[in-house]
Amino acid sequence: MSDSHYVNDKPFDPKSIEVLTPEQEAIYLAPQRKLIWWKFKKHKLALVSGIFLVLIYAMTIFAEFLAPYSVESRNSDFTLAQPHDVNFFHNGEYVGPFVYGYDKDLDLENMVRIYTPNKEKVIKLNFFCSGDPYMFWGIIAADNHFMCADIENPVYLLGSDRLGRDMLSRIIYGARISLTIGLVGIAISFTLGIIIGGLAGYFGGWVDLIAQRLIEVVQSLPTLPLWLTLVAIMPSNWSQIAVYFAITVILGLIDWTGLARAVRSKLLALREEDYVLAARLMGASTSRIIGLHLVPGFMSHLIASATITIPTMILGETALSFLGLGLRPPTVSWGILLNDAQNIGVVALTPWLIYPVIPVILVILAFNFFGDGLRDAADPYG
Predict the structure, then answer these.
(1) Which among 229, 224, 310, 216 is positioned nearest to 264, based on CA atoms?
(2) What pLDDT digit, counting tens, does each position of 20-64 carry?
(3) Which listed site, 65, 267, 292, 381, has its alpha carbon 20 to 30 Å from 326?
(4) Which of these, 121, 166, 119, lies nearest to 147 by C-alpha position?
């Protein structure tokens, strides 16, 4: 019998072994990101949360246009006015969206203003109209707004504060600070978590020992007193922009530990793989092995972890500003707006002052649902 072997030099055709349906072929040949997307779409709550987050972050880009009034526009004749009710029919006729104007009176016993809707004073709502002038992102001068009303008869869909400023406009403006502070903070946390966790997981030994002790020390520090200490050492003459970036750095320096441990555990499992050994034998540097070979292998898990960490930073900024220790007026954030609602008496008489807590709750829930869905979709064993 001959010892020669026959080698077929034709390209391998997987269809010659098993006949695949178009659906099976699409799944077998699909890249990882497409598989994740298909699994993510099945998580309806996460998909809705993702759409909500995209919309609300888009709102921060066009805050000046979407807000009915400028951030500091005030009317001293309508302080602490309750929210207007939007109507469409007046005396049985459709007139479009409108509100009834207020008649003002003073309650001398409780020393509060009383606003009563006047059914004869119809204030129509106009859309895509000219209103308070503003500088779009501090660059372009404009006065276009999505919704406007009569200048002499202001409309407060979510009420007004103690200075006669529109709460809806201030909530829209406040979203820009409260939402972006989480993104900047996660960039710092992401960088520290990958570097420290990556070095600990790849080298192990004394590097891992030092990293673990550092993580334990940071995690053992009480969060609120640590915030108070770090905020207290910030110079009082700093601008609000400097304070904003300082708070993002503080939040990033506190919240990197969980991500670092996740990276460490993954690298401990992956560093002994054959492709890592091959890269090491070919002379690849440590940073290249970690950055190009190890981290991309579980990047989807890191992204899912990041989406769950962002709410923590948003709550951190809100808590600091609520306590008067973070950003301060004239900067507007959701925490600063809630600062006006600390008095229980004010809340009882003017409950619309706590409306800024509603977007905080919705955003936190949306990030958690979105992160859960993304984590399940990125899990190869799910």
Answers:
(1) 216
(2) 566 666 666 667 677 778 888 888 898 999 999 999 999 988 988
(3) 65
(4) 166
156-178 core/surface letters (b: 16 or more CB in 10 A; e: else): bbbbbbeebbbbbbbbbbbbbbb
Single out the residue of 31, 28, 27, 32 nearest to residue 300, CA to CA.
Answer: 32
**Which residues are CB-neighbours of 96 under 8 A, at least 6 positions away?**
88, 124, 125
Which two three-digit tokens encode residue 326? 């973070």
pLDDT score for 26: 66
What's the CA gap between 380 and 28, in Å, rounded? 14
* 289 close to 202: Cβ distance less than 8 angstroms: yes
How distant, in Å, are the alpha carbons of 2, 11, 14, 218 from that of 6?
11, 15, 20, 64
Rounded Cα distance between 77 and 152, Å, is 10
DSSP-assigned letter for residue 6: -
Residue 56 has, within 13 A of its CA and on its CB side, a CA count of 22
Q: In whole angstroms, what is the distance from residue 230 CA to residue 246 CA? A: 9
Per-residue model confidence (pLDDT) at position 325: 67
Question: What are the tokens at 261?
Answer: 């441990």
Q: Can you list the domains of the chain with their CATH numbers?
A: 68-163 (no CATH), 170-378 (1.10.3720.10)
Name residues whose C-beta falls within 8 Å of residue 44's C-beta, 6 or more positions apart in sequence: none
CA distance 69 to 105: 25
Give the integer Cα–Cα distance in Å for 264 and 260: 6
The answer to whether residue 4 scores a pLDDT higher than 70 is: no
Q: What is the pLDDT of residues 70-94, one digit of tens each?
A: 888 888 888 888 898 888 888 888 8
Rounded Cα distance between 228 and 209, Å, is 30
- pLDDT score of 272: 78
* Geometric angle at alpha carbon 295, from 290 and 300, rounded to 5°: 175
